[in-house]
Amino acid sequence: MSRPQKDSLPIQADDLALGPLLYPGILDGYKSPRPDAVNGIIFAKIGPELSPDATVAVSIAPEASSWASIVTEKGPPAGYLSVTYKSCPSSQHAAGSWWVGGFALRNQTSGCLLLNVQVEGETSIRRVSISFWDKTCGS
Questions:
Q1: Mapping DSSP to helix (H, G, I), strand (E, B) and coil, where does residue 86 land?
Q2: What's this model's pTM, rounded to 2 decimal places?
Q3: Integer Cα distance of 89 and 75 in angstroms
Q4: Residue ranges per structural domain of the chain
Q5: Fewest C-beta atoms under 10 Å: which of 15, 51, 68, 100?
Q6: What is the pLDDT of residues 20-41, one digit of tens each?
Q7: How far apart (Å, rounded) are the C-alpha atoms in residues 79 and 70?
Q8: Which of 44, 40, 48, 64 lies closest to 116 in space, CA to CA?
Q9: Residue 16, strand partner residues
């Protein structure tokens, strides 16, 4: 799959593009089979992609911070409330960068996850809602 271009439209109909940040296949909700919870945590795997020369901070909105987190490959299993993704320069990696990770849901089996996304160089914060399994979320 090709990597996103800065502020491009989604590369597939169900990709969620937030400036240079792309969550492939999640725009219409997380549709992968629901895994079993381990110690009350369900892991929803979705690897973010980032265009070259970009920095984006993704934060769990306060409304969801009691039950959701961002999981990264090298981070704690419980995840983080905020992660900053910084891609390689285009001279080193023209295709952009991507990370193994996703989101963790604690003690619930579905939800509308609200994210705050800050793209470096932009003054406004983008707010987006992602549906996990059987929840219908507003935009």
A1: strand
A2: 0.85
A3: 23
A4: 16-26+40-132
A5: 100
A6: 999 888 876 777 778 888 888 8
A7: 5
A8: 64
A9: 23
Those residues whose C-beta lies under 8 Å from the C-beta of residue 2, and which sit 6 or more positions away, are 11, 95
Q: Do the Cβ atoms of 72 and 58 come closer than 8 Å?
A: no
> What tokens does 73 get?
């490959």
DSSP H or E stretch at residue 55 = strand 55-60
Residue 128 backbone dihedrals phi, psi, to 5 degrees:
-140, 150
* The amino acid at 9: L
> Which amino acid appears at position 67 of this protein?
W
- Statement: 16-26+40-132 belongs to CATH 2.60.40: yes
Can you give the C-alpha Rg of the chain in angstroms?
Answer: 14
Position 103, amino acid: F
Contact in structure between 118 and 125 (CB atoms under 8 Å): yes
Per-residue pLDDT, averaged over 71-98, amounts to 89
Please give the structure tokens belonging to residue 2: 């090709």
Specify whether the CB–CB gap between 117 and 18 falls below 8 A.
yes
DSSP category for residue 14:
T
Q: Which of 128, 115, 103 minimizes the C-alpha distance to 34?
A: 103
